[in-house]
Design brief:
With 329 residues, this protein is α/β, with parallel strands linked by helices. The chain has a single domain (4-326), classed as 3-Layer(aba) Sandwich (Rossmann fold), CATH 3.40.50. It contains eleven helices and 13 strands. The strands form four sheets. The protein has a seven-stranded parallel sheet with strand order 3-2-1-4-5-6-11, with helices on both faces. α1 (13-24) crosses α6 (218-230) and α3 runs parallel beside α4. It is globular, with a radius of gyration of 19 Å. The N and C termini lie far apart (41 Å). The model has no long low-confidence stretch (mean pLDDT 95). Bound molecules: uridine-5'-diphosphate. The site of uridine-5'-diphosphate (UDP) has 15 residues, from α5 and β8.
C-alpha cells in the first residue's frame, strides 16, 4: 500500500516540486490548491499518473479528504511581498484559518503534518546569522505583517496541537529559495531580475542594494523538507543556503550571466525590508544530516534555462491572471 500525502499549495513553486518528490518516492499524492497564486501548468505533467489527484479547494473553508492520510504538507500561502500587498486578507486567512483546518484534518486522520514556516518570522533580524532560538523583530502592522504574523500564529497553533493533542507536527523555516517554476511576476528578486534582463529592461534594485539574502536552490530545499518530515523532531528547523550575497552583487551576477547590455536602476527600499538574512543551519546538519549541495552558479544556470523557455507572452505578463477575481473577496 502506498503512503498517502496531502500537499497544499501544490500548484505553487515549492508545492509542485514537493509533488514531484513524493511521486518519485512512491507516495499517493493528493494535491490541493485554490489557484490564486498557483498555476496548474506546474503540475499538469502529473495528472496522467494513477497515484496523483488534484483537488481545487480553498483550505480556509472546511477540508474534506476521503480515505486515509499518512502525511500532510502545508505549503499554501502567497509568499512574496507584492502578493501580500495585493491579497493581504487571504494571506492572513490561509496562515491562520487554513492552518487550523489542516491541523483538525491531521488530528482526524491521525496524520503527521509539516507546516511551511519562513525566515520572515525573524523579521528584520537583530541576530546574525539567524538561529532557531531567535524570537525575531517583526512589525505587526507593516505591509509584511500580514504574512509574518500569520506564519508566527501558524507556528503557535501547530505547537499547541502538538502539545495539547499530541499531534505529530514538523515546522520548517524556509529561507529564500529559487528555481524553475517561480512566478515571473511575483515581485521576488530572482524572477524580477531575470525577467528584466530577458525583456531588455534595467534591473531595479530597491534601496542601495547593500541588503543581503542567502538563496537556496529548490532541490536542496525539497530534500531538507523531506528529511525533516521523516525525522522525529517537532521544533522549528531552518532550511536554507547560508551563502550570503548583497542584492547589488546579485544584480551584477545576473547581468553577467544573461549577457544583457542593461544597467541597474535604484528604487526606494520597501518598508520593513530586512537588511540582512542568513540561516544558521547547524541544527539541520546535526539533526537531519542535511546541507545544500547546489551552489548558486549551478542553480542559477538551471533557473535561467527555465525562464528562457517561457513564451514571449509569459515573459511580458505583468500581473497574475487570477488576482482581480479574488481581490474583492
Ligand atoms: N529586490 C530588489 N529589486 C526587485 C525585487 C526585490 O532589489 O525588483 C530586493 C528586495 O527589496 C529585498 C531583496 O531583493 O531586499 C529580496 O527580495 P524578495 O522579494 O525576493 O524576498 P524577501 O525580501 O522576502 O527576502
Amino acid at each position: 500500500m502506498r503512503k498517502r500525502i496531502l500537499i497544499t499549495g501544490a500548484a505553487g513553486f515549492l508545492g509542485s516540486h514537493l509533488c514531484d518528490k513524493f511521486i518519485k518516492e512512491g507516495y499517493h499524492v493528493i494535491a490541493m490548491d485554490n489557484l490564486i497564486t498557483g498555476d496548474l501548468k506546474n503540475i499538469e505533467h502529473l495528472f496522467k499518473l494513477e497515484n496523483f489527484e488534484f483537488s481545487h479547494h480553498d483550505i480556509t473553508k472546511f477540508i474534506h479528504v476521503p480515505g486515509e492520510l499518512d502525511y500532510i504538507l502545508h505549503f499554501a500561502s502567497p509568499a512574496s511581498p507584492i502578493d501580500y500587498l495585493k491579497i493581504p486578507i487571504q494571506t492572513l486567512k490561509v496562515g491562520s484559518l487554513g492552518t487550523h483546518n489542516l491541523l483538525g484534518l491531521a488530528k482526524e486522520k491521525n496524520a503527521r503534518i509539516l507546516i511551511a514556516s519562513t525566515s520572515e518570522i525573524y523579521g528584520d533580524p537583530l541576530v546574525h546569522p539567524q538561529t532557531e532560538e531567535y524570537f525575531g523583530n517583526v512589525n505587526t502592522i507593516g505591509p509584511r505583517g500580514v504574512y509574518d504574523e500569520a506564519k508566527r500564529f501558524q507556528e503557535s497553533i501547530t505547537m499547541a496541537y502538538h502539545r495539547f493533542h499530541g499531534l505529530e507536527t514538523r515546522i520548517v523555516r524556509i529561507f529564500n529559495t529559487y528555481g524553475p517554476r517561480m512566478r515571473l511576476n511575483d515581485g521576488r528578486v530572482i524572477p524580477a531580475f531575470i525577467g528584466q534582463a530577458l525583456r531588455g529592461e534595467d534591473l531595479t534594485i530597491f534601496g542601495d542594494g547593500m541588503q543581503t539574502r542567502s538563496f537556496c536552490y529548490v532541490s536542496d530545499q525539497v530534500d531538507g523538507v523531506y528529511k525533516l518530515l521523516l525525522s522525529d523532531y517537532s521544533l522549528p528547523v531552518n532550511i536554507g543556503n547560508p551563502y550570503e550575497i548583497t542584492i547589488k552583487d546579485f544584480a551584477d551576477e545576473i547581468i553577467r550571466l544573461t549577457g544583457t547590455e542593461q544597467k541597474v536602476t535604484y528604487k526606494e527600499l520597501p518598508q520593513d525590508d530586512p537588511l540582512q538574512r542568513q540561516p544558521d543551519i547547524s541544527l539541520a546538519k546535526e539533526l537531519l544530516g542535511w546541507e545544500p549541495k547546489i551552489d548558486r552558479s549551478e542553480g542559477m544556470k538551471l533557473t535561467l534555462d527555465y525562464f528562457k523557455s517561457l513564451t514571449k507572452e509569459e515573459l511580458h505578463q505583468k500581473d497574475h491572471k487570477d488576482f482581480k477575481k479574488h481581490i474583492l473577496k
